[in-house]
Amino acid sequence: MSNQKIPYKIYLEEQEMPKQWYNLRADMKEKPEPLLNPATLQPVTLEELSGIFCKELAMQELNDTDAYIDIPEEIRKFYRMYRPSPLVRAYCLEEKLKTPAKIYYKFEGNNTSGSHKLNSAIAQAYYAKKQGLKGVTTETGAGQWGTALSMACSYFDLDCQVYMVKVSYEQKPFRREVMRTYGASVTPSPSETTKVGREILKEHPGTTGSLGCAISEAVEKAVTSEGYRYVLGSVLNQVLLHQSVIGLETKTALEKYDIVPDIIIGCAGGGSNLGGLISPFMGEKIKGKRDYRIIAVEPASCPSLTRGKYAYDFCDTGRVCPLSKMYTLGSGFIPSANHAGGLRYHGMSSTLSKLYHDGLMEARSVEQTAVFEAATQFARIEGILPAPESSHAIRVAIDEALKCKETGEEKTIVFGLTGTGYFDMMAYEKFNNGEMSDYIPTDDDLKPGFASLPKVD
Amino acid sequence: MSNQKIPYKIYLEEQEMPKQWYNLRADMKEKPEPLLNPATLQPVTLEELSGIFCKELAMQELNDTDAYIDIPEEIRKFYRMYRPSPLVRAYCLEEKLKTPAKIYYKFEGNNTSGSHKLNSAIAQAYYAKKQGLKGVTTETGAGQWGTALSMACSYFDLDCQVYMVKVSYEQKPFRREVMRTYGASVTPSPSETTKVGREILKEHPGTTGSLGCAISEAVEKAVTSEGYRYVLGSVLNQVLLHQSVIGLETKTALEKYDIVPDIIIGCAGGGSNLGGLISPFMGEKIKGKRDYRIIAVEPASCPSLTRGKYAYDFCDTGRVCPLSKMYTLGSGFIPSANHAGGLRYHGMSSTLSKLYHDGLMEARSVEQTAVFEAATQFARIEGILPAPESSHAIRVAIDEALKCKETGEEKTIVFGLTGTGYFDMMAYEKFNNGEMSDYIPTDDDLKPGFASLPKVD
């Protein structure tokens, strides 16, 4: 089909939306290593996981045999409010770059939570409701996950308790208010509402909190409250499963116009977006049906894939969650304070880690000034103000398109535009004022994190 | 066609997007009164207007004979980046309200400027570029217009100078940074950069500015700078013309599914959104082809249609712009400080004023607590966090749907959802904290405004 006929935005019809999620692990010849119970160092059981997560989600977490899992009608109904999301042909960007490459992006920011996080939030809220729970607890740092979960809980009339890293709670009052508008209760962490919070406050009275601490509080709150479970927005297998809706829609949209991507690019913090976007493409790659270059992009200041170790580690800084075999900087790793965007997780989804370890995926790290240059360029040309996280993928997409300009290759590049940057204007302000700087940790800087790795292997 | 077949979101194909704007005035039997030169009290000439506006826009401003005006391909290309906008069936809201009414909303918030303002901004920037200008000046209060214009100017590589009411500049730093990210220069008004600004600062050293003052500075800057013109985001005929794209898309989308609306609702400040949304429907109504109930919704605290006078008045508080015959509270009217949203303009588009005066349109005023109740309800059910301005229309749409519940009538309601509220979380915070109050001016409160009306009629 000729270029002329490809619209700026490819929207699927409602009936073309996926009715099943795709569980990539079922098609992986080499499965990711199982989660371990940190006390016994044995694979966690469904029963153990069900104490923390809803039963159905715990089952999804452990399921590496069913390739397709039905999306319940109630979730599909919610999806229809903001999905299908558009696959956009970046004609204007291509023109500006004068590249022969064809650039597409799957835009997940067209919902109030402002990101792809809603795809999993609504699923997790649904299963919690189905199980008859009163509510869920979670933590949020930058706030995208907390916002998405509060929207999802409001829809199912479920209580939503969010522990928000104190520094974000104070610096991002608007994020907080969106969550409150959706009826969530938002507690700055560390707080007096949990035992672990009180202990931390006693030890570090002036602390502004950390994601690890917020996770610990949220988990404690869930397991000590009748009718509550804990939910998480990234890293987990269940999250990648729900996010497969991104990749499935992308693939259907491309196939409608006989487009075959050469390169697929996504930003990677815990891996929720990247894992979802690439899943059906990776499935074909694993089966030998087609080859794609797949690139994970991470910040140079938090380089788990490119400089981390492939080892069993705690999923949380508080070291209360199961152990996962993954690329990790160590659960004791603290990202630099100058780091503006999200993607500041010490580890990486075990599935993505395995794929990377087996050479099925590339990884690249980028510095934040270059990321904000790409973000600003993209905003001005394509009209969407991207989230700093998403802009990591934009940076590499532009770099690849510029390589095509040099070589004359007409490659087709697809990247995930996970969300919008409306609540990240403080970082943009820093960039606009020329006050943003880069930070690449030295090997010595990484040592304390690696020292925190548990002795398992 | 049965209900079941109507999707949640009706997206037009690119080839179904309008190729011409619709100029409602051409079809009005009774034309709106002409703009007057305040010095001569004679209708303004094209030459006079061309000193302030681009020539092509001045021509559009005065054109009440051509019903259709071609949308230049360059503008249509930009439109394709974020349009067509979806017409959404509010199934979830209907269900929650248990109403037999069918509710649709045309959602204009899916672009970085966050509102419909971009539809006219890109047109005005295009004509400025075509005329060979270096740049444009404008004012912004809440910031939607300034954001849209900065995006449009960035696209056409045009300098954009925004005078932002000082209190907004300080209280809405994120809005400011979006404009700067798009390359605009943003000056808090009043400023030292203009004669009128310096005079005001001398007289009122501590002032936090007003829209009227910012308009005066922007106009002075434009007429005293080589290669610059002034642009405005509402009230004017040219703006309503460009915004007709909203109504034309809405009508095409409805017709695709044989849907005929009974009631069309829009919020109204200066009238840019309402005028655009209703134009093709009003055209049919005027020609007697079909009848529609059309409702303009304004804040009770700034009630130009419901409590204003139909008279010639200045378009700006600084009294430098032409006189327009409109419903007005007087250019000296100052909206209450407790007023949280936009829609705080003293007057109203002359076209809409005429239609209202001739009984072709209804108007209703609503109080802001009720507006934020509707906004929060809508956000929780439909998943979109609406702008306070848009929420005025939501309030009345819900009220009308609840009336249908009482009477059992299956009316079809269409309303304009002009934008998102991401930059209005301070107002939501006030509401969430129970600190929002209502204000309805007494007749005495309105007296000073009416006293400022020029002696013309």
| Cα end-to-end separation of chain A | 52 Å
**What quaternary form is this?**
homodimer
- Hey, which two chains have the biggest interface? A-B, 43 and 42 residues
Strand sequence of the main sheet of chain A, in spatial order? Answer: 1-4-5-15-10-11-14
Give the helix tally of chain A: 19
Which radius of gyration of chain A do the C-alpha atoms yield? 21 Å
* Structural class by sheet pairing and helices of chain A: alpha/beta
- Uncertain segments of chain A: none
Helix content of chain A: 40-55%
Q: Major sheet of chain A: size, sense and barrel closure?
A: 7 strands, mixed
Question: Overall mean pLDDT score of chain A?
Answer: 93
CATH architecture grouping of the largest domain in chain A: 3-Layer(aba) Sandwich
And the CATH topology of the largest domain in chain A?
A: Rossmann fold
Instruction: Report the principal-axis shape of chain A.
Output: globular
Total domains of chain A = 2
Number of strands of chain A: 15
Percent of residues of chain A in beta strands?
15-25%
**Under the CATH scheme, which class of the largest domain in chain A?**
Alpha Beta
What does this structure look like?
- The structure is a homodimer of 457-residue chains.
- The termini of chain A are far apart.
- With 457 residues, chain A is α/β, with parallel strands linked by helices.
- In chain A, strands 1-4-5-15-10-11-14 form a seven-stranded mixed beta sheet, sandwiched between helices. Chain A has a four-stranded parallel beta sheet with strand order 8-7-6-9, with helices on both faces. In chain A, strands 2-3 form a two-stranded antiparallel ribbon.
- The model of chain A has no long low-confidence stretch (mean pLDDT 93).
- Chain A is built from 19 helices and 15 strands.
- Chain A has two domains: 15-74 and 116-230, Rossmann fold; 84-114 and 237-440, Rossmann fold, CATH 3.40.50.1100.
- In chain A, 43% of the residues lie in helices and 16% in strands.
- Chain A binds chain B through residues 7-9, 11, 13-14, 77-78, 80-82, 92, 110-112, 114, 151, 154-155, 173-174, 177-178, 180-183, 376, 379-385, 420, 422-423, 425-426, 428-429, 432, and chain B through 7-9, 11, 13-14, 78, 80-82, 92, 110-112, 114, 151, 154-155, 173-174, 177-178, 180-183, 376, 379-385, 420, 422-423, 425-426, 428-429, 432.
